[in-house]
Structure formats: C-alpha cells, structure tokens
Amino acid sequence: MAFEDKIKQLLDKRVEAKLGGGQKRIDAQHAKGKLTARERIEILLDEGSFEEFDMFVTHRCSDFDMQNQTFLSDGVITGYGTIDGRLVYVYSQDFTVFGGSLSESFAKKICKVMDQAMKVGAPVIGINDSGGARIQEGVNSLAGYAEIFQRNILASGVVPQISAIFGPCAGGAVYSPALTDFIMMSKENSYMFVTGPKVVKTVTGEDVTDEKLGGAMIHASKSGVTHFVVESENEGLMMIRKLMSYLPSNNLEEAPLAPCVDPIDRLDDSLNNIIPENQNKPYDVKDVIHCIVDEGEFLEVHRHYAANIVVGFARFNGTSVGIVANQPNYMAGVLDINASRKGARFVRFCDAFNIPIVTLVDVPGFLPGTGQEYNGIIVHGAKFLFAYGEATVPKVTVTLRKSYGGAHDVMSCKQLRGDINYAWPSAEIAVMGASGATEVLYGRQLKDITNADEKAKFIADKETEYNEKFANPYNAAKYGYIDDIIEPRNTRFRIIRALQALATKKDQNPMKKHSNIPL
Ligand code: HXC
Description:
By secondary structure, the protein is of the alpha/beta class.
C-alpha cells in the first residue's frame, strides 16, 4: 500500500471511530437530549487539549455472533487533556455502542487511563452512560468491572476521582462511581440503582419508576449518593471544571492559588447583626459564608441532602478551603445521622487532599430519639468526630452561636486538634442549653413547687442564671479552648490571618496500616 493510502486509511479509520455506533444511534442519543461521549469530552476539556488513547480497540468476543459486530473504540472514549491548563485523565462511555455496556476491552481502556493518572498524579474524570455489564461477554465483563473497582480503591485519597452520570448506571456498575470522591447526576435521563424497577417488582412487588427509584433528585435528597445535580449536561461539565479549580491534582500537592481581588481586610457590618436577639431564632448560615469568602463565591456540595449542615468549597485570599457549617435555618442545625455522614465524608476528602477546613459552628446538639438511636446515630456521629480528629490539615473554627454537648466536641474543637478556634460574642458553649440544664439540675426542687406561676418564675430565674454563667464564649475562653473572641464583621480578615499562619502546618497521625473508622 502506498504511503498516501496508508495515511488515508488512518484518517478513514478515525472518521469511522468517531461515528461510534453509527449516525442513527448518534441521532437517537441527541433526540433524548443527550450529548455523545466525544461531545462531552470536548465541552469538559480545554479546547483542542484532548489526546485520545485506544481509538482502534475492539472487543474480542465471538459469542452471540459478536465477531460480526465490532465498533472502533468499543464503547468508551479514553485519554487525557487539560482543564484550565491542568492535566486530567478522562473516560466517557459511548451509549451508541452496545448501549455503552462494558466489555473486557472497554474495561482495559479505562484501567489504562487510571493507571497512568496514578503514575503522573492527575485526577480521573469518568462520564457514565451505560447499560452495565455487556451481556454477551458474561464473566469477562464482571472481571472488567472488578479491575476498575480495584483501581478506584487504590486511587482513593491519591488523585481526585469525579463521576458524572449522564445516562443509565445500573447493577454493580454503580459501585465504581460510588467509590469515587464526587458524583454528579443530570436531572434528565440519568439514574443509578443496583436493580431496576422490573426486578424490584418481581422481588418485592413494589411498583416504582426509574426516576423514583434512582433519579438524580432521589439520590441528591434522599440517599445522598450524588453530590451534585445539574439541569443539563453542559451545566454539569462546567461544574466539574469549577470543582477542579478548588482541588489539587493529587495528595502530594496543594490546590492552585487563585488570584484574589477581594480585599482581605474587608469588614462586613451586616455580620454584627446577623444573629437574632432571640437565641432560638434561625438565620441562614450561607449568608455568613457568602459575606466572608472571596467574592462571595461558594461551591456547595450535597446541597439537597441533610440541609442541617452545609459543606462546600470556597477561597480565602485565593486559598482553597473546605467549609463545614451548621445550618440554623434547617432543623435548628442539629446533628443527625445524615448530617454526620455528610460532614464526615467532606472533612475526610479535604484532609486527604490538603485542603484546609474552616468550620462555622451553631449547633444545639445531636438529634435525640428512637429514630436516630435505632439507626445508629452513635456510630454515624462517631464518624464525624473521627474525621475531624484524624484530619491533619489546618483547621480554623469560628463558633457563631450555639455549641452544645457532644456536638461541641465534634465540630472541630480545640482538643480534636482544632488549630485556631475563634468565637463571636454571641457564642454559647456549654454541656447543654438552659432549659435542659435547669430541668436536670433542679428537678427535685421543681417537683416540690405546685403553683404554676411560681414554677414558671423559678425556671425563668434559673435559666437566666445559667445563660449568664454558661451561654457565652468567655467561659471557654477562660480555659484557652477559644483562642480569641472576635467581632463578627472582622471574621474574614481573622480567618485569612489564621490560614496564613497555618500555611506551613505539619502534623501527622501515628504509623498504622489504616485506621478503623466506625462505618
Ligand atoms: C449488551 C446492551 C446492554 C448490555 C443495552 N444494550 N444494554 N448490550 N449488554 N448490558 C444494547 C441494546 O441491545 C441496544 O442495542 C442498545 O444497547 C441500546 O439499548 P436500548 O435498550 O435500545 O436503549 P434504551 O431503551 O435507552 O434502554 C437502555 C437500558 C436498557 C435501560 C440501559 O438497554 C437495559 O435495561 N439494558 C440492560 C441493563 C442491565 O440490566 N444491565 C446489566 C446490569 S448488571 P441495539 O443494537 O439495538 O442498538 C451489571 C453488573 C455489573 O451491570 C457487575 C459489576 C460487578
């Protein structure tokens, strides 16, 4: 063959590969409002930066007449490129080829990019749109999944792993995304479940739709499986780029420093009035976050799940931080099972990737009751406690208002190696609130008071006395548990100074195989 013909052959094969399962299936994909695997990569990465691997790979199956049905690339597009100039590895499942189902060759392609990402220390972004294990390949497909799972596990805490779900993700296939750091689902067309509605109907008799069983909003608000929900694939791909800007490329690096035009000593007078006079009245802690971070920008993680705690990424003077804040606006900011799981997972991510943690505390305690106890609030709360205590990144804590009981200890207190702990003058740091304490301390006297008015006055007096003594930050500051009591409007500046002081912090945990976090 003449050299020119060889070039033509290459170019023809590239054109063929780019058609995936063919124009008809591409049209069907578009008709569903979905992008193709390649279009997704183009939007995700910096223009022209994508370098593709294994375009000419095909499957090797010969059962079910499969030898006569081969498609170049075999249903997954893999390679590397850049996001804002930083190297990332990607794979994007191509639904136009056997419904994006996973063959042995398909799995090998994914493993190749994961292995290289680990060697060079770059994040892995996976775009999922697949019918799961390729039925024709049987056990080879299951083995392929397990190869990927193993790599997900070894990469965990070494390079960030992000999963976008832009189509079906069913059966054991859900476990690869579940092993990664962040999951994003598009509102339309995407679902995740271990068994679909038909199997559910057969096994349990329950009638349920795809959407209700494993749609984006279900996983965002009920199960907490997904961290982000987006209206469109385009929005999701842009959000991944944004998320990446807060993250380092691997566990040996720090997140990129962003240029900051927001004055570091910007005072915000509104913060001096944000805490309501009535200590039981709610306010929105996100207002506090927006006031103190660079340009008010906050990328919230798990927005629809356990709204009693708020977690996400922001910057102080260009430094990327993880923010964890109790939310008085929802269930008074109480810590329950879901909030504990959400907080623990986020703290551990930040710690694994050298991202300082800023904690804003306003927590009345743990949620009491059989519902919580029977479902293991003790173990789940311990997770959160464990995560904070294990974390060695810089930890700056600001107590805005309540910080009661066990929840006080959990929320990055001094003894869990909180580095710099500030409190606003409105802080209340004690074993419990005034009404609970009065009931416990004066139960006997209260039994003896029969007159209702007298009883009410007794309680009010004792609560006032208790509040004056304990519902303030000075008692904790007296013992050095709080490093300083700060003016709310100056919070941004004080946090920035604290982060600057802690920038060279070195701390470590004892040598061990791994810890045994309560799961
Ligand atoms: C081989 C598959 C496939 C699969 C879909 N296709 N899933 N081929 N193996 N798992 C093919 C179809 O035959 C079809 O081929 C094309 O992909 C598009 O599929 P459609 O059904 O036409 O599309 P749609 O109506 O959009 O439905 C998509 C779907 C459905 C919901 C994903 O195809 C489906 O239910 N597939 C099976 C899902 C499943 O049960 N997978 C196994 C899960 S268990 P043509 O040639 O007609 O275009 C699992 C175990 C993993 O994955 C274990 C890991 C440990």
